[in-house]
Specification:
By secondary structure, the chain is α/β, with parallel strands linked by helices. The protein is 31% helix and 22% strand.
Length: 560
């Protein structure tokens, strides 16, 4: 007898094929049968009027630290995610010597918008190498399936120490890095990840270590994938990194290359499509390149205490290492402001987060009653009303409130016609949730529900079966995740039951549930009736369930 039978569901199997009505049986963590005669079961769920799909594979998360204290990787499982890939951009916590732990956490605080107090209070160590990190996760258990990259910045720090963010590596140092990358891949890493993005700065505003790697280092480390015989090269690309070089790396390694983050910029609207065209051309030449795109508008909440929105600007760099009175002084400095203003007004840059659209920056919450009238108004409106330049108006308000003013900025992906074209591109990969990072800035862990609700039901840009494939079958194929991403007999019972008429993510909510009472933004699921991981139900209409056992697996074997 089967353990679970889901009856009368609209089955969307992840292949892109037409949905059909039927039953699905689960036994011993696997899909036992699909069809009208799936057999009896100890538990039966009548899914009349509901849809059944494979669990969402979130291929761009940063749960590396959180998963050590929160085995559920919340809120992702409640949002339909059954497999998460961690270590993206090369921002991992392994390998890491005990002496470097504070430095690794401080870098995450800066580059991923995390609270240092939360990270120090929550992160559980007890490992040094990448294989030891994976082994620790297996010992403690995980609620969802986890696959992890070997992270370039951590590898560089391990080999080069304080020199990692300052210079190119020597041949001897590259050799040591190769050994670490290969050991991680042989221990079951899903690939190798790095970043050359100018938005990625570490503690004190210095570049994340991977940004100092030259082409020789990149070729040597990406070449490890060929030697290992599996894995994906994932890169968050800066403008100086050319698509032709990434195609060369794909040819060198024989492995897929995932290029992030391809987001639409209203001030440079052709740039993202130029990149996608280059990716298409590379595929036509037999190289497997994929553009990581988001189905969500990039909206960030921030204060001037940690203005990630502006920290990628070259003119903002003098402010990055400063704190306290010195930081406040530079925010008030006319020369500093003029430099920032001049850069924003200059030629558009595709990878730049903020490009001067002050009508899309809102005063979300104020700290003083006398400023209440500006709440929910744009900075552009604030500037017009006060007769000030928008940058001056924003900074003066923030300084008057001891930098406690909360702003919200709609930065990229605001043109839905353009985003729709990106989602439909044959070589785009729906991605970039950043779940586990930027906890006080934004939370796109519910990106899959947004795709199903906004882009399928409300806009009709994608049919349901195509959207489900983009969330399941496509990432499983790109990353070589075997036995998942499709509803087939013998595959893992990673499942989501949802209502196609209401599915979506809810409004953002700020909660204080991190270690030490730290705050974060979350978005609740809407229209999700159940999520199963390896046959165990982890979530229902009320959200995450209390689990007697953790059903997830640390994935270590990937197809070629």
């Amino acid at each position: 007898m089967n353990e679970l039978l889901i009856r009368n569901a609209l089955i969307v199997d992840g292949s892109g094929g037409k949905p059909f009505h039927g039953d699905l049986a689960v036994n011993d963590g696997l899909i036992a049968a699909i069809g009208r005669d799936a057999g009896p079961a100890r538990e039966t769920l009548d899914a009349e009027g509901l849809a059944l799909m494979p669990g969402i594979i979130d291929n761009h998360t940063h749960y590396d630290a959180q998963i050590t204290w929160d085995a559920s990787a919340s809120p992702s499982p409640a949002l339909g995610v059954t497999t998460a890939i961690i270590g993206n951009c090369g921002f991992t916590i392994a390998p890491c010597r005990e002496a470097d732990r504070d430095l690794i956490l401080k870098n995450l605080t800066q580059v991923e918008g995390m609270s240092l107090e939360v990270l120090k209070a929550g992160t559980k160590w007890g490992f040094e190498s990448v294989p030891e990190y994976f082994a620790m996760l297996e010992r403690q258990g995980v609620a969802l399936n986890i696959a992890g990259f070997v992270g370039h910045s951590s590898v560089r720090t391990y080999v080069m120490g304080e020199e990692a963010p300052k210079r190119a590596a020597t041949p001897a140092e590259i050799g040591k890095m190769r050994d670490i990358v290969l050991a991680g891949l042989q221990a079951g890493a899903v690939g190798f990840a790095t970043s050359t993005s100018p938005n990625h700065n570490g503690h004190g505003g210095i570049p994340m270590p991977s940004r100092l790697a030259d082409e020789a280092e990149m070729k040597a480390l990406v070449g490890c994938l060929k030697e290992a015989g599996h894995g994906v090269f994932m890169l968050t690309k800066g403008g100086q990194t050319k698509m032709g070089f990434l195609e060369e790396l794909a040819a060198l390694s024989g492995r897929p290359v995932v290029v992030a983050a391809l987001l639409h910029n209203n001030t440079n609207p052709r740039a993202v499509f130029d990149e996608l065209e280059k990716i298409a051309a590379a595929n036509a030449r037999g190289r497997r390149l994929f553009g990581a795109v988001s189905c969500c508008p990039l909206t960030m909440d921030f204060t001037l205490r940690s203005p990630y929105t502006f920290e990628g600007l070259a003119a903002w760099k003098p402010a990055l290492p400063l704190t306290g009175p010195a930081y406040r002084a530079i925010l008030g400095d006319a020369q500093f402001r003029d430099a920032v203003r001049s850069e924003i007004a200059g030629p558009p840059v595709a990878s730049r987060l903020f490009n001067g659209e002050w009508d899309k920056v809102y005063v979300e919450n104020v700290a003083r009653e006398e400023n209440r009238r500006w709440q929910q108004h744009t900075v552009a409106e604030l500037a017009r009303a006060t007769g000030a330049d928008p940058l001056d108006a924003m900074l003066e308000l923030a300084l008057a409130e001891d930098l406690e003013t909360e702003f919200s900025a709609l930065l990229l992906n605001s043109d839905e016609r353009a985003v729709g074209k990106m989602l439909c591109h044959p070589h785009s990969l729906v991605s970039l949730s950043d779940a586990g990072a930027h906890l006080t800035l934004f939370n796109d862990a519910g990106f899959g529900l947004h795709l199903l609700g906004r882009w399928v039901r409300e806009l009709g840009v994608l049919p349901l079966e195509a959207a489900v494939r983009k969330l399941t079958g496509d990432p499983a194929a790109v990353f070589g995740i075997q036995g998942r991403g499709a509803l087939k007999a013998g595959h893992a019972a990673d499942l989501m039951v949802f209502d196609p008429a209401s599915v979506n993510r809810g409004p953002k909510v700020r909660v204080k549930d991190l270690p030490g009472g730290g705050a974060r933004l979350i978005t609740p699921a809407v229209g999700v009736h159940g999520v199963w991981i390896n046959g165990t139900q982890v979530s229902d209409e009320k959200g995450l369930r209390k689990l007697d056992r953790l059903p997830g697996k640390v994935l270590r074997e990937f197809g070629v």
